[in-house]
Amino acid sequence: MQNLTVLGTGVLGSQIIFQAAYSGKTVVAYDISDEILAKLPERWEYLKPLYLRDLPDATPEKLDAAVARIRATSDLADALSDADIVIEAVPERLDIKRDTWAKVSAVAPEKTIFCTNSSTLLPSDIVDATDRPSKFLALHFANEVWRNNTGEVMAQAQTDPAVFEQVAGFAEEIGMVAIRVKKEQPGYVLNSLLVPLLSAAAALWVKGVADIETIDLTWRKATGAPLGPFQIFDVVGMVTPYNLNKDSADPIQREFAERIKKDYIDTGRLGRGVGKGFYDYA
């Protein structure tokens, strides 16, 4: 599968685009407006020094070649016209994902395999919005995909096993370690482990038990982890935890969403990708 289309050019979508292009794939970046797509060159310039820092084989020439393999469009039919595989990375809301896949199904070639990068939703929640259940499954990436390089592959009941293996092979071709998830699980393996940590950290902060820096320091020192939970939030970006928590049944998690909306999203502190979130990265 050489031709990839990625739907959504946010923090993780843009990373998937760049990593696939760096690995030699031809990539089309789709988003809903040309204004959003106009910001992508700035995103590539942000990612390039991170690849040079973290990957021994990265060179300026290889990074420029990766950018040359990326084409951007806000025309969905154009974006999908020759796609072997499409990865959806739109906001983490079931209504948006289902609407996106219904539109994709109307214009995608018969050959195209459909993958959602949803962090928490199950592929079985979305599959009936598509026209090809045997070719629909999840391929989930960790943030900072060039170094946290896991690709979690998770089928739903109607996924063709051969398609599952094709997608696992594609993940390996773009530099991922393919994690074959044996049954549907909200959050896959990674987020099943990570989300409880982040939720606990959010609750400690909202309840005033400890400040952000102390919570992060405690986790790093006591476990040897390179990042504390609020540093992880900054890597993920503020929009995803806001969407996941704003309608939570837990009032503490709803308050956390309200705080990050008011004090961070509304003030442009969207996370490490823009240089500031819970911490400043200038």
Level-1 CATH class name of the largest domain: Alpha Beta
What structural class is derived from the secondary structure elements? alpha/beta
Q: What low-confidence regions span 5 or more consecutive residues with pLDDT below 50? A: none
Measure the end-to-end span. Answer: 38 Å
Total number of strands: 8
| Range of strand content | 5-15%
Spatial shape? globular
The CATH superfamily of the largest domain is identified as: NAD(P)-binding Rossmann-like Domain
State mean pLDDT (0 to 100 scale). Answer: 96
Number of structural units classed as domains: 2
CATH architecture of the largest domain: 3-Layer(aba) Sandwich
Secondary structure layout:
Elements: E1 3-7, H1 11-22, E2 26-30, H2 34-37, H3 40-54, H4 60-68, E3 70-73, H5 76-80, E4 85-88, H6 94-107, E5 113-116, H7 123-126, E6 136-141, E7 150-155, H8 161-173, E8 177-181, H9 190-206, H10 212-223, H11 229-236, H12 239-245, H13 251-265
Parallel strand pairs: 1-2, 1-4, 2-3, 4-5, 5-6, 7-8
Antiparallel strand pairs: 6-7
Structure description:
- The chain is 48% helix and 14% strand.
- The chain is an alpha/beta fold and 282 residues long.
- It folds into 2 domains: 179 residues, 3-Layer(aba) Sandwich (Rossmann fold); 84 residues, N-(1-d-carboxylethyl)-l-norvaline Dehydrogenase, domain 2 (Orthogonal Bundle), CATH 1.10.1040.10.
- α9 packs across α11.
- The longest helix is centred in the C-terminal third of the chain and has 17 residues.
- The model has no long low-confidence stretch (mean pLDDT 96).
